[in-house]
């Protein structure tokens, strides 16, 4: 048992008030958290820390289990309240100064021991604050993951244009994860609606690089394996240029500049035409 | 660290069907999406057939593994066959030693998240794949 | 030994694959089909795989072989009912089965074969897109 644990135990009250005033000057966010709550958290953490450090100085040991559990809750609630990971870490780190002050007062006569103990206590607190940051970032990652999934669901509407003709208007960047969702929902819709033709419209896709083109070709090939035709429409002049410059081969794929052109082709292939019923009826649209 | 672990023999072509079904039921147990299940089972089928035809039979060991918050299935195909002299070449699309289409190894690599192959001529081949949920 | 049944309907042969095939079974289907095409002088072959949960490179190769062999025997092959997940996996595997005609279901597959037989024997490559 080294000495810093005894010093902390003996000076618990002084450390707590020192810690609270330290936080009040440097890291408080009164807009996010009230005095009572922060006092409760500080008191509880100091109690758990003091208790755990009496039996072990290894953060990984069982003695620190409840401290770590508590820090996890702190990290979660702080992230929910809108603290940054750095602010969350500072909550633990700001305990350093009052602890070091207490050590300095207790070991005035022995500077070399003081350095050793400050090092040991500092080390322990650093590890705990790192753990808090890891937790905080972990919670943030979970949030991001959830949002990504929600976005994927929102971003792939398959619409029916006519009996047997589907359209998939794509908007935004296509990455691998999104393409898989797009591919699945289009192919499933083809089976569900028994559609012979599907039109993928990329008017809303900002750029087409080799990877995006490959994804599109894969989707179209898969549709063909199932027995449906897939057209690509909404190819802007700039994208047509990129496709040629990149040497992407779209020769096996039916492309059209506009969605309406692709739709007209789909109607024609399924033996249908659009005629005007008003005035001098113009000829059915030529392709 | 494996949460669950089983080993199956691959000696006849019916065993390939059986390990496919094992892969299917494990993937369903971990609630893989239908497409992920299909990819995983297809990769299993390719590698099990490799073990049978090139390795002269062997084993498949299946494990459920964990990495942080995600779970996955690891399959280890092990044989004591003639081994592969040039792994780089064997992994290339279209390369074939047995008159197939040469998509067994290279194709199954594209169907999983992690793919590792160890082989020495005369000592057999071990292929390890992981598909995360 | 079990075998996959082949139905003869007019000028066509009809196969529905419903079991998880082991490799020998797939090989025997390939042999049975080619010998029956020759025997009946069939003009069309329809293979329905709507209940197949996976198609790996072996089965894919067998399907490609059947299509190529029947073409030599002057019969057209149509593959019907491939599941979306199976199609995605096959594409990822690198097997696009370029020489095979496909249809969404048996009904459309039969239509496609009928059109082919009405047109006469000359081979034409419209890439699955019927007018």
TrEMBL record, chain A:
Top-level taxon: Bacteria
Pfam families given in the database record: RsbRD_N, STAS
Phosphoprotein keyword on record: yes
Domain STAS, residue spans: 155-266
Record's keyword terms, sorted: Phosphoprotein
Protein name: RsbT co-antagonist protein RsbR
Species of the source: Granulicella aggregans
Automatic annotation (TrEMBL), chain B:
Domain of life per record: Bacteria
Gene Ontology MF annotations: protein serine/threonine kinase activity
Sequence ranges assigned to domain Histidine kinase/HSP90-like ATPase in this UniProt record: 36-129
One Pfam family here: HATPase_c
Ribosomal protein recorded as keyword: no
EC number: 2.7.11.1
Keyword Transferase included in the entry's annotation: yes
CDD domains referenced in this protein's UniProt entry, alphabetically: HATPase_RsbT-like
Gene3D superfamilies in UniProt: Histidine kinase-like ATPase, C-terminal domain
EC category name: transferase
Keyword terms: Kinase, Transferase
Name by which UniProt lists this protein: Serine/threonine-protein kinase RsbT
Natural source organism: Granulicella aggregans
High-level lineage: Bacteria, Pseudomonadati, Acidobacteriota, Terriglobia, Terriglobales
Automatic annotation (TrEMBL), chain C:
Residue ranges of domain STAS in the record: 2-113
A Pfam family matched in the record: STAS
CDD domains linked: STAS_RsbR_RsbS_like (cd07041)
Domain of life: Bacteria
The protein's name: RsbT antagonist protein RsbS
Organism: Granulicella aggregans
């Amino acid at each position: 048992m080294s000495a810093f644990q005894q010093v902390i135990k003996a000076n618990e009250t002084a450390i707590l008030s020192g810690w609270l005033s330290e936080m009040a000057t440097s890291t408080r966010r009164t807009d996010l958290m009230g005095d009572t709550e922060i006092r409760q958290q500080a008191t509880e953490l100091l109690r758990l820390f003091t208790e755990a450090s009496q039996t072990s100085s290894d953060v990984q040991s069982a003695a620190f289990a409840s401290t770590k559990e508590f820090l996890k809750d702190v990290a979660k609630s702080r992230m929910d309240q809108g603290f940054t990971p750095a602010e969350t870490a500072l909550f633990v780190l700001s305990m350093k100064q009052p602890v070091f002050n207490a050590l300095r007062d207790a070991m005035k006569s022995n500077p070399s021991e003081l350095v050793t103990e400050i090092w040991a206590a500092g080390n322990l607190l650093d590890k705990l604050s790192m753990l808090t940051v890891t937790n905080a970032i972990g919670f943030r990652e979970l949030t991001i993951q959830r949002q990504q999934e929600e976005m994927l669901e929102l971003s792939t509407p398959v619409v029916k244009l006519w009996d047997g003709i589907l359209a998939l208007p794509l908007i935004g960047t296509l990455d691998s994860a999104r393409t898989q969702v797009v591919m699945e929902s289009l192919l499933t819709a083809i089976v569900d609606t028994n559609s012979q033709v599907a039109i993928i419209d990329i008017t809303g896709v900002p750029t087409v690089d080799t990877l995006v083109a490959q994804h599109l070709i894969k989707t179209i090939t898969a549709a063909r394996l199932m027995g449906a035709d897939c057209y690509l429409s909404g190819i802007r002049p700039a994208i047509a240029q990129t496709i040629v410059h990149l040497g992407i081969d779209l020769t096996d794929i039916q492309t059209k500049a506009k969605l309406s052109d692709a739709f007209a082709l789909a109607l024609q292939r399924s033996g249908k035409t659009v005629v005007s019923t008003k005035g001098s009826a113009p000829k059915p649209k030529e392709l | 660290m494996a949460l669950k672990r089983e080993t199956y023999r691959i000696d006849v072509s019916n065993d390939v069907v059986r390990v496919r079904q094992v892969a299917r039921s494990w993937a369903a147990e971990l609630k893989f999406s239908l497409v992920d299940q299909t990819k995983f089972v297809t990769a299993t089928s390719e590698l099990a057939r490799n073990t049978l035809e090139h390795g002269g039979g062997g084993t498949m060991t299946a494990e459920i593994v964990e990495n942080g918050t995600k779970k996955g299935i690891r399959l280890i195909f092990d044989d004591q066959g003639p081994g592969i002299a040039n792994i780089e070449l064997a992994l290339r699309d279209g390369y074939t030693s047995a008159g197939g289409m040469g998509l067994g190894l290279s194709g199954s690599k594209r169907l999983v998240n992690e793919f590792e192959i160890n082989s020495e001529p005369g000592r057999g081949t071990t292929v390890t794949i992981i598909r995360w949920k | 030994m079990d075998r996959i049944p082949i139905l003869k309907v007019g000028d066509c042969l009809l196969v529905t694959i419903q079991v998880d095939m082991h490799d020998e079974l797939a090989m025997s289907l390939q042999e049975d089909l080619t010998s029956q095409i020759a025997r009946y002088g069939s003009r069309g072959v329809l293979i329905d795989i709507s209940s197949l949960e996976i198609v790996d490179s072996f089965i894919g190769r067998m399907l490609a072989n059947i299509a190529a062999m029947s073409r030599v025997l002057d019969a057209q092959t149509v593959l019907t009912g491939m599941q979306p997940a199976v199609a995605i996996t096959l594409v990822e595997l690198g097997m696009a089965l370029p020489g095979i005609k496909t249809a969404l279901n048996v009904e459309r597959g039969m239509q496609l074969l009928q059109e082919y037989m009405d047109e006469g024997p000359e081979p034409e490559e419209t890439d699955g897109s019927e007018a």
